[in-house]
Amino acid sequence: MQVIGFNLTKIHGEKLPSFSKAGINNNLEFTNVEKDKVDLLKDLEVIKLSFKYILLYGNIEKPEETKEKDKQGEIYFEGNIILSATEDEAKDFHKSWKKKEIPKSSVAPLYNFILRRCSVKAINLQEDLTLPSPYLKVPIIKPKE
To answer: What is the C-alpha separation between 123 and 115, in angstroms, rounded?
Structure first.
């Protein structure tokens, strides 16, 4: 299986006036899998995989429990990945999706690909909105006394 296309269909960034020091909760989920066609790839199956990737800023003490009402900011992406696959890989993919799952062998590479593509855009949005970034942790070096 190989990624042959990637596009974002929605990008949203927001910092609420109530923003204070906030924790970050990120979530990546696959929302749909469907067959697609690419004229150049007649021998391979084409899969269109839709996703949502959300960085939610909120309750610093327990960011994993941040609810919509506790939200202080967010960065949100929606998009699609186009995959080329053999007939067997495509059948396995669609069979897994009937249970709203992605084949285990594909999850990590797809997550990494999406994070790599969205992280660059998220960093720019975080800088523009003055939101903290989960990606770049710069160590603070204290001078020797």
So the answer is: 12
88 domain-assigned = yes
Range of the domain at 111: 2-129
Q: With respect to residue 140, please indicate whether it lies within any of the assigned structural domains.
A: no
Give 88's pLDDT tier (boundaries 50, 70, 90): confident
| CATH code, 118 | 3.10.420
Would you say residue 4 has pLDDT above 80?
A: yes
Exposure on the CB side of residue 81, measured as CA atoms within 13 A? 27
Say if residue 9's pLDDT is above 80. Answer: yes
> 52 near 32, Cβ under 8 Å?
no
Residue reference for tokens 């994993």: 64
Query: Is 134 part of any domain?
Result: no
pTM: 0.80
Q: What pLDDT does residue 50 have?
A: 95
Domain count along the chain = 1
Distance in angstroms (rounded) separating the CA atoms of residues 6 and 12: 18
Q: What is the DSSP letter of 138?
A: P
